[in-house]
Amino acid sequence: MLNRVRSAVAHLVSSGGAPPPRPKSPDLPNAPSPQTAAPPEAPRSPPATAGSGSAAPAKTVEARASFSRPTFLQLSPGGLRRAVDHAGRAVQSPPDTGRRLPWSTGYAEVINAGKSRHNEDQACCEVVYVEGRRSVSGAPREPSQGQGLCFYYWGLFDGHAGGGAAEMAARLLHRHIREQLKDLVEILQDPSPPPLCLPSTPGAPGSSDSSHLVGPQSCWSSQKEVTHESLVVGAIENAFQFMDEQMARERRGHQVEGGCCALVVVYLLGKVYVANAGDSRAIIVRNGEIIPMSREFTPETERQRLQLLGFLKPELLGGEFTHLEFPRRIQPKELGQRMLYRDQNMTGWAYKKIELEDLRFPLVCGEGKKARVMATIGVTRGLGDHNLKVCSSTLPIKPFLSCFPEVRVYDLTQYEHCPDDVLVLGTDGLWDVTSDCEVQSSGPSSGPGGPGHPPGPWLASPQQQAGFRG
After folding, report:
1. Considering Cα of 227, then 402, then 124, then 457, what sign does the dihedral take?
2. Sign of the dihedral through C-alpha 93, 94, 96, 102
């Protein structure tokens, strides 16, 4: 598989300062709701050159969004033309206008020559204010009661088979996270343990007395402890699911093409939450030490989950695939012989007698960057891909793909940091051509400020950029 050659770098430091005051509403996206005047599906970036593919009739299908890049790049028409130049492959970064992105964030991207006509990836950097929806008592919150929460948000979306899913996720995923956090505003600001059950709104379905349905308390040996941190993790996980469901609903009317891997960072109340669904990667460089903040989800790393699903639901294999894995493709002449295999329960290998069903194509095949699910896709988690089918078949692949991210948490208050400490986010195109150590050594040698001051944005030198291109 050709290397996706573009890199994305986001810098975070522990001493970034206290959360800013509530931003004015025009600077923040509106929450998707029936009362919103402008639908959330409106284009996020100004249109540029038209994308590939034929246009759909305006009367039946909304026109496909024009090719666009992240708005914070502020690309001119000439910059947009350079962004699709497969020969020059210019590195695109935010302009030096004196106005920095939050937390002195740095960013760089370059098109993957020969892979697709346009860059199918997207990025997002936002400061989002969350206003509580209701109090813990169940009564609607008065506007003057309490304060909301502000979180920083960074996202990288590695698109494939079209840029629609990545563009939609870049515009809307942080809104879904905000929506999920609305019920938690008061809870997260209260140091006491979170309530296990929130009261329903009076008169709402399910609000009638159901105490007669509750069994004796003796059936519960103990009560599970739930932390505030786990509530934020659950909010992010739910947001990914709702984003994927919205893509499924709107994939026809708005032509949400393809799918995307998603790597998202949320900074809230002193903690960094890194959510990864796909094969992108995040690392923290702290005092010269590399701390992994994600792991890649590929057919190899999720082999057992995929095989278990194929074993439990063989109809998803369509009679064309086997959930078992073999060291190589079995030949018909080898029927009756014994060959090494492994199933969903095994990490090692054992021998089994080859039967007729074993001649089917394996659910997971290949190694490394060539590993595929159903001989089609090389990632196992992400958003979109609702129309993805096995090549030359009508068999859908989406049931094997998960939209749920793995979320890792880093508590900034628990460690000492220096101005050179950074969090680096990159899609697989960066990590295909360089290692964690090489990225770490390419970072800033010194921050412009002293301790307690965020470093300025780091951009690689021209020699480093050439190496990152591959």
Report:
1. positive
2. negative
Angle between helices 228-250 and 164-181 (to 10 degrees): 140
pTM, two decimal places:
0.77
How confident is the model over 170-184, as pLDDT tens digits? 999 999 999 999 999
Type and span of the H or E element at 129: strand 122-130
**Distances from the Cα of 350 to the Cαs of 239, 324, 333, 347, 355, in angstroms?**
41, 12, 20, 10, 15
d(CA 466, CA 462): 6
Q: Which residues contact 82 (CB under 8 A, 6 or more apart)?
A: 88, 90, 92
Please state, in angstroms and as integers, the Cα–Cα distance from residue 161 to each residue in 164, 167, 387, 404, following that order: 9, 13, 10, 20
Q: Of 32, 42, 33, which is closest to residue 254 (Cα–Cα)?
A: 42
Length of the chain, in residues: 470
Tokens representing 317 are 């294999």
Kindly state the tokens that stand for 165: 């899913």
d(CA 416, CA 187): 28
Alpha-carbon span 263 to 324, nearest angstrom: 30
Distance from C-alpha of 226 to C-alpha of 187, rounded to nearest angstrom: 12
Q: Provide the token pair at 318.
A: 């369509």
For the chain, domain boundaries: 25-43+66-195+224-297+403-469, 303-378
DSSP labels, 89-109: -PPB----SS-PPGGG----B
Q: What six digits make up the tokens of 284?
A: 């923290």
How many other CB atoms are there within 10 angstroms of residue 109's CB atom?
26
Specify the fold of 25-43+66-195+224-297+403-469: Phosphatase 2c; domain 1 (3.60.40)
Those residues with Cβ within 8 angstroms of residue 329's Cβ, 6 or more apart along the chain or in another chain: 361, 362
Q: How do residues 221-250 score in pLDDT, each as one tens digit?
A: 677 888 999 999 999 999 999 999 999 998
Neighbour-count burial of 404, counting CB atoms closer than 10 A to its CB (0-12 exposed, 13-18 middle, 19+ buried): middle
